[in-house]
Design a protein that fits this description.
CATH superfamily of one domain: FAD/NAD(P)-binding domain
Structural class: alpha/beta
Number of strands: 18
CATH topology of one domain: FAD/NAD(P)-binding domain
Strand content: 15-25%
Distance between the termini: 56 Å
Order of helices and strands: HEHEEHEHEHEEHEEEEHEEEEHEEEH
Radius of gyration: 21 Å
CATH class of one domain: Alpha Beta
Number of helices: 9
Helix content: 25-40%
Amino acid sequence: MLGALRKRKMWRRHPLKSHYDVVIIGAGVHGLAIAYYLGKRGITDVAVLDKTYLGGGSSGRNTQIIRCNYRNPQSVMFYDEAIRLYEGLSQEIDYNLLTDQIGHVTLALTDTTLDVLRLRAETNRALGVNSSIIGRDELERLIPLLDLGDGGRYPVLGALWHPPGGVVRHDAVVWGLAHAAAGMGIEVYPHTEDTAIRKKEDGVAGVSANGQELRCNYVVNATAGWCSTIAEMVGVRLPVTTVPLQACVTEPLKPFLDVVLTAADLDLYLFQSDRGEVITGAEINPYSSYGFMSTLPTLELIASFTVQFLPCLRDVNILRQWAGICDMTPDFSPIIGEIPGLKGFILDVGWGTYGFKTAPASGKEVAELIATGKTPEMIRPFSITRFYENRLLDEKGAGVCLRPVTKSYQLL
């Protein structure tokens, strides 16, 4: 039995065909989720292409956090749908994604930040999402080792408490979705780079990959930090800036933290994994780049803020630091849907630092768009047309860092 399991392949190898109904560029959580939900709708003539290994981009380089405590109603509903799908996805695809809804805490160090968090909590509650403002006493109960900063320049005033938040194992999501999609007959191609997208008079006609021409009816751009380079293949310039994001992990420790902890005024978010490691990250870098280099200044920043709130970690060793690249839009909200005048070219991009959180919902909605030819109401507000119709969805306030305390620069 064990030998049979070891020989079982997660997905099969196939020669590229000359025609597909749908070609998805990017085999991260979004591309694979789209493929999976297309398969559930009976659309299996699908190829998922990735220029490296599956999950080799942002899907394998994020900090695994999920939440739906956002600011705008459109975002809250979208991310809430994603959490609901994550809750049942392990059973649905018969693959353990190690989903752990341990709760999400966002600290406020200033009155202004506390007001912003209160607005988010009330918006969440109005839409049926479990979020509330808690005080220092409740924080001490939830996180006994938290230093509330009494006597410091910016003591903790309160926090946004979001019980549905938590973590999901990112590589398990990649493998599980790829396995489930492949089981439906969808073809997954790692190490297969798209080098050109062919156009016809009213839309897309196919792609070039690994020296072959693949005709198709739909091309989906689900490539995160590389999305603008893919869009340029069809003459589309996206309002996206690609910026590195860094994180690190400590040596394993005995369990002491059972929530996701973030600080809204500082560049900090962290949680303790099941193996005891503390995974902690910073805000996006203050410059654009496609590089995956980690830097000492960012590590110093992460370490200093972590120790500020959890002094018990002062002498803990950091084992590894890494970086991914994020596709940031001007309003920090994604771009989803078909481009007007370019039939068959679908965008699922611009997620910035939020992308992993919403993969199942985005996959489900994009699959519905392709299957029905109609844009679902859930993703209609995130069309690229909002940038010239003056209806932006500003989600900077739902990020980790509200900036005024520590940073003198702005990304955009």
